[in-house]
Amino acid sequence: MNLAFLDMGMAGVLQAGLIALLVGLLVVCLAHLLLSRRLHWSDAHEIGWSWLAAVGIGAGIDTWHLFYMAVIPMQSPVTIRRVLSGIHDPDFLGIRVFVEITAATLGVMLGWALCRHRRG
């Protein structure tokens, strides 16, 4: 996935976090409106599945890159160069993953609170 639309540095981290927050809000609202009543989900099911989808969508590619870099042995400069060339802003990858997961969690919880408030 190409993340070239994100800025470099902390500005890109904040943009990625905002995107993950909006994904979390959208996913939990869609789950509440479309799935929760049909499948008779409890609040825990709604939050859990929404969180899993939001983190997968909002932070999935960056989390995969971070995991891949931890698992693949980086013993040659060619391997390091090849892996880093496919990552948008590798200097801020770790903080971007943390912010995306935190923002997706916050988005799911805010969306759940809004849907719960509307429900009564």
Features:
120 residues; mainly alpha; 4 helices; elongated
Q: If you had to describe this structure to a student in words, what would you say it looks like?
A:
79% of the residues lie in helices and 0% in strands. It is an all-alpha fold and 120 residues long. It has one domain (10-115). Helix 1 runs parallel beside helix 4. It is elongated, with a radius of gyration of 17 Å. The termini are far apart. 28% of the residues are buried.
How many extended strands? 0
Distance between the amino and carboxyl termini:
40 Å
Q: What is the N-to-C succession of helices and strands?
A: HHHH
Envelope shape: elongated
Radius of gyration: 17 Å
Total tally of structural domains = 1
Count of runs of 4 or more consecutive helical residues:
4
Briefly characterize the structure.
The protein has 120 residues and is mostly helical.
Q: What topology does this entry show?
A:
Layout: H1 10-39, H2 43-71, H3 77-85, H4 93-119
Helix pairs in contact: 1-2, 1-4, 2-4
